[in-house]
Amino acid sequence: MSATLEKGLNAFKEVIDTPIASYFSSCVHCGLCAEACLFYNETGEEKYTPIHKLEPLRRVWKQEYTLLGKLAKMLGLSKPVTDAELAEWEPLVYDSCTMCGRCSMVCPVGNDITYMIRKMREGMAASGHAQEDLIGATTRAVNIGSPMGIKWPAVLAQIKHVQAETGIEVPVEREGADYLVLMSSMEIINFPEYLSALCRIFKQAGVSWTLAQDAFEATNSGIQIGASDLAREIVSRIVVAAERLKVKCVISPECGHAFTAIRWEGPNLMGRPFGFEVKHILEVLDELRTAGKIKTTGKDARPLTYHDPCQITRRGGVVEQPRRLLGDVAADFREMPDAGVMNWCCGGGGGVSANSRAEPLRLEAFKVKKRQLETTGVHTLVTACANCRIVLEEGLEHYHMKVDVIGLTELLADHLVEGE
Ligand code: SF4
Ligand code: SF4
């Protein structure tokens, strides 16, 4: 056995905690998770059944932690997991799972298959079978501070641009501010209008906020690749900055997995509760709206619909907030079929969008989103995750669909009452 395989199998053994053991032992092989998965649903290929993607992890659990499995292994009736098998499973674990959580919603025995996939990725990373593009993104995140290699001068350039455009000062390193605002690399590069929109809304609402020079990046590729130590390092930068600046709340940007990383995984990774709150930007905007601090005028006349980002809606519980916000600014809002907690993934979560090898499969899986959109008949799609937004734009272009994609924060800012 090679040293990396041994390390990987030991990692597999270590990640098998009580929930994992209980999930494997309670699986009744009903196949309901298959129907919930966009990759199985759109291809019909058995290998994309969620529970099948976990087969090496299941074998390690059976052989190491069950009496029958141990006996079968001793008698040579059950073969140990090999390096070749892990190499074969690598595309299943990294290309055909966006960690969208839809399968976990339908399992009749309550198995959180998404949690299991995350644990499986930890074993894959430790055994030297992490996906190549994600290794690059994680290395850049650790060494440079951003998975896309963005450094503070690039953020500063955007800040200057926003200040010139809006006439509003962007606060940086402001100790004692109420909120620390994070951004994602994709917003910084592809959607600079997010920061501009935020400035205008926060100015009207009188929000006390700041950016931090050494903790502007919210994305966490350590979570996606399955490397807890790296995920912890990335989260700790935000925690250190939030504590240094003594903020009351950290705002996760329009990015799905960033919200999961800092809000739900963050305290577990750090091994302690945070002394500040973590909220998604939509939660903050909804609170400001409820408090009467956001004043909008007019409504967008275009028929439009909302794509629920999986990590924000299904895994994060932010369901009604975007709908209340849309209610203020949309004259003809139409829900997609399966909207809300059972919405279909865009196909690019969980690091899949950063994985160039997965592109053909991702576009195949996008057919479900295409059908959802066609049902609504809209040509404007609103969302609240920069990663979803890029993946949606690529899918729409691939299928020659004329649909504009916009961020909810920007849509809201477009309707702010002028001069307030
Ligand atoms: S839905 Fe649950 S019980 Fe059914 S096969 Fe999938 S993991 Fe097993
Ligand atoms: S988390 Fe989503 S993409 Fe992954 S196996 Fe489950 S349904 Fe499929």
From TrEMBL:
MF-aspect GO terms: 4 iron, 4 sulfur cluster binding; metal ion binding; oxidoreductase activity
Transferase listed as a keyword: no
Highest taxon of the lineage: Bacteria
Name of a matching Pfam family: Fer4_8
Record-given protein name: 4Fe-4S ferredoxin-type domain-containing protein
InterPro entries: 4Fe4S_Fe-S-bd (IPR017896), 4Fe4S_Fe_S_CS (IPR017900), Cys_rich_dom (IPR004017), Helical_ferredxn (IPR009051)
Domain 4Fe-4S ferredoxin-type per the UniProt entry, residue ranges: 89-118
Keywords: 4Fe-4S, Electron transport, Iron, Iron-sulfur, Metal-binding, Transport
UniProt source species: Sideroxydans lithotrophicus (strain ES-1)
